Amino acid sequence: MCSPVFLSVTQEQGPGPFSGGFWGFRPYLYIMLTNSQAFYQLIKQLQPLYDTSEATAIAHLYLEFITGLGKMARLDKKDTPFTKRQQDMFDSKSKDLLKGKPIQYVTGSAWFMGREFLVNENVLIPRPETEELVQWVIDEVKILNPKSNTQNTDPQFQIPKLRILDIGSGSGCISISLLRLLPSSIVTCADISHDALDTLRTNIQWVLTEAEKQKSADNIRLLELDFLDETARNKELGRYDIIISNPPYIPYKEKSKLHDNVTKYEPTIALFVPDNDPLVFYRAIAEFGKSHLRKEGQIYCELDAAHAEACKQLLESAGYTNVELKKDMNGKWRMLKCSIVNQESTL
């Protein structure tokens, strides 16, 4: 099937045969790619930046963004040409992709725990490993409350009202997901970035359904805070049943090993820590938890696999018990859970 051609006539100043020498008209021809042509063209263009598998995955996401059609629907319509609007979008936005800009920043969204979150360069892109951390929390709450069921509307089987602190909230993928899946909870989101909190605030409205917002939107608090400032965190934060964080943990010396689509576009402040103190955030969380975890409270963190054992030892030496490391879907030690025997709750 031949690609259709769209003719556009644009008026320009200058000599021209149609205007007596002053105003000319230049015709432009637009070749409309089909769904299939656009897909394979984009894969070929992306392969200098990514391996074939990743380039293919990006092309699928981008074509779905352009057309609104999933893989199978596009396969059924593989010879269907783009509209002019779709072609213009494909041409303009693919330039960013070919510079290495992550697909999620190009489309402005990323999926997490079954919901679409809005993302931009002020927040990290939500990743599947972090979904595993959130699911671990959900599973543990169910184990500790065997009669509870997040889908059960019977009041006597409701999950208790948990106080949750999300440190370094970013887009809100962790905090909003927990608010949604543990709807009786009260969630505090702490982040040093004002712009990140603006994105989180937008996502509360974007991600939650109207029913969820009516039930839970008042149970989430946003706080601009440098968590490493001990005085500020002790002043602003209370006590919690769950403290969860995906903090910065990559030493600056590792930056050269990361893909350009991470180092050039994702927020540095959310990624890197000093080379001489890669556990700085975990040390602060451990110290904070001693006086801010409620009775039987737990800490959950995402980790750099290279420092997982050191992080475990840090928490054990700080007095935490039941310190457990957990592997992610790729078999790497990327998550940690622990608790501490401390004071009775006064909240």
What would you say this structure looks like, in words?
- The structure is a single chain.
- The chain has 347 residues and is an alpha/beta fold.
- It folds into 3 domains: 1-31, no CATH class; 35-99; 109-339, 3-Layer(aba) Sandwich (Rossmann fold), CATH 3.40.50.
- It has helices at residues 35-46, 52-67, 71-76, 84-98, 103-107, 128-144, 173-181, 194-207, 210-216, 230-236, 260-263, 280-292, 308-317, and strands at 5-13, 23-31, 109-112, 115-118, 163-167, 186-191, 220-224, 240-245, 250-251, 272-273, 293-302, 321-327, 333-339.
- A 7-stranded mixed sheet has the order 7-6-5-8-11-13-12, sandwiched between helices. Strands 1-2 form a two-stranded antiparallel ribbon.
- A hairpin with a 2-residue loop joins strand 3 and strand 4.
- Helix 1 (35-46) packs parallel to helix 4 and helix 2 packs antiparallel against helix 4 (84-98).
- The radius of gyration is 25 Å and the shape is globular.
- The chain starts with a strand and ends in an 8-residue tail after the last strand.
Highest-level CATH class of the largest domain: Alpha Beta
Averaged pLDDT: 89
| SS content category | alpha/beta
The total count of strands amounts to 13
Please indicate the percent range of residues in DSSP E strands (runs of 2 or more): 15-25%
Instruction: Work out the radius of gyration.
Output: 25 Å
Write the layout of secondary structure elements.
Elements: E1 5-13, E2 23-31, H1 35-46, H2 52-67, H3 71-76, H4 84-98, H5 103-107, E3 109-112, E4 115-118, H6 128-144, E5 163-167, H7 173-181, E6 186-191, H8 194-207, H9 210-216, E7 220-224, H10 230-236, E8 240-245, E9 250-251, H11 260-263, E10 272-273, H12 280-292, E11 293-302, H13 308-317, E12 321-327, E13 333-339
Helix pairs in contact: 1-2, 1-4, 2-4, 6-7
